[in-house]
Amino acid sequence: MASASVFRTLLLLACLLFTQASPAADAAMAAPALDLPAPGQLHVYVREGCPHCAEAKRFLASLAGSRPGLQVVHREVDRDPAARDALVAISEAVGAWPPGVPTFVYGGRVLVGFDDAEHVGAELLRLLDEAPPPPRDRVESSLFGTLSASELGLPLFTLALGLLDGFNPCAMWVLLFLLSLLVRLQDRRRMAMVAGTFV
Known about the structure:
With about 200 residues, the chain is α+β, with helices and mostly antiparallel strands. Among the domains are: about 40-130, 3-Layer(aba) Sandwich (Glutaredoxin); about 170-199. Helices cover about 55% and strands about 15% of the residues. A four-stranded mixed beta sheet has the order 2-1-3-4, sandwiched between helices. Strands 5-6 form a two-stranded antiparallel ribbon. The radius of gyration is 30 Å and the shape is elongated. The chain starts with a helix and ends with a helix.
């Protein structure tokens, strides 16, 4: 009975040790990486000589004044093979086949085509409004100035934010008051009660 238990345990260990996935199987299962824009960027896939693309560019130029935080990246599919491949991959992923220009990609959503500002332009504005805001990696502080996680590194950024958040003048005065009470007390039970009120 004990030998059967030992045999099962050894068999299980052997299976776990010698079972591994081959790199070819991992590569076959990996999904193709899409060239999606960074948060806050609008990628516009255009082609030279396309009248709809020219109209979309004019619309986006007029939009720049009302949305200063929006970064528009024009990707020429007729001149840039990487842009063409990215457009094909995105079109296949969302089921918009054959790929068309202009194609707008923002916040993981895709909009194909442009006719005028009243129809597709309004739909594009809705797409921009409904997308989640880009994550902020900067914090403004009067003590330290502008803090950025990408410039400082995460541990130093966390320490700086902890210092800013942790400094509370009221709590400091209460702590000093309680410490002054503790210095004068001689009874350990009373000291524990006073210290426990702060915690």
